[in-house]
Amino acid sequence: MLSAKEQESLKMLAGLALDQVHVLFELDELRQQASLLVQAEAAVNGGAWEMDLENKLAVWSSELYALHEADPTEAVTFEVLPRYYPNGEAERLTEAVTRAVSTGAGFDLQLDYVTKLGQRRCARITARVEPRPGRTPRIVGSFQDVTPQKVAEAKWRKASLYDAVTGLPNQSRFYARLEASCASGQPGALVVIGLDHFKAINEGRGRAFGDSVLRAIGEKLVADLHHGTFVARLGGDEFGVLLADVQTSEALTAQVQTVRAAVDATLSALSSRVVAGASLGVVVYPDNASTAQDVMVASDVALRNAKASGGRWAMRAI
């Protein structure tokens, strides 16, 4: 006959054993759910794969062959992989597989690939390791073509850095470039171009025509200014030009005159359809200002002075 204390201990052990059984059932259920999730992911993402390391083969699902526009009867050996994953991408994949075998941990890679018909695409490739006693582990995973997402991301990045009308860097990217230039301590100059009477062009000829004028000016500036000059649209009717070679006043004047000539030539070519001019505000840094913010403020003052004096260009001295 067990004592009350022994009975209590036995109940406790039974309870612990029951808890352990529940945990095992839960773990098994989680494993099954994980397995189903992997299978579902492979189906949704477009394909599943396995690395047969013993025979040096990449075993692809039919969906994966379709994504690669490949012949499903073709054996994808390790020698074949670089055709679909050129420029070192096949090496990145095989290195990840080798590392997975040695560590037992899976991986998550994003790789560029080329279909058999020459289309360049991008994929997210995930893998897990399944140990096999006495044999090389299985490396299995899913494949998701992420080309649409990459294209969307590239468009978003471009929209965040470039002006939609002219294709030039926008004000955000321009300001970052100006900050870096000021921080370098090297002498430089900012030329801000403001088109005169541009509002009348938009109102009289329409915004589409006004946009074409902006594009023409941007293209002419990029074409005529030498390498190392940075051109951007700051918004509205204003452009910004960063000049690097301003060691002498002669060099600065020559470059500002080139900017002036590029704008005048563009507007002159449109003279039969528009009546417009341009004013330029020039700031030399660090002589006139040392921080990007101070340079921008000084350029606004210089541009207003130029417009007040009837156009042409004005330099701001602080």
Notes on the structure:
The protein has 318 residues and is of the alpha+beta class. The chain has two domains: 43-161, 2-Layer Sandwich (Beta-Lactamase), CATH 3.30.450; 163-315, Alpha-Beta Plaits (2-Layer Sandwich). Helices cover 50% and strands 25% of the residues. The chain is built from ten helices and eleven strands. The protein has helices at residues 4-45, 62-67, 81-84, 89-103, 147-161, 171-184, 198-205, 207-224, 249-269, 292-308, and strands at 46-52, 57-60, 76-77, 107-114, 120-132, 135-145, 188-196, 230-235, 238-243, 277-285, 312-315. The chain has a six-stranded antiparallel β-sheet with strand order 3-2-1-6-5-4, sandwiched between helices. A hairpin with a 2-residue loop joins strand 5 (120-132) and strand 6 (135-145). Helix 7 crosses helix 8 (207-224) and helix 8 runs antiparallel to helix 9 (249-269). The protein starts with a helix and ends with a strand.
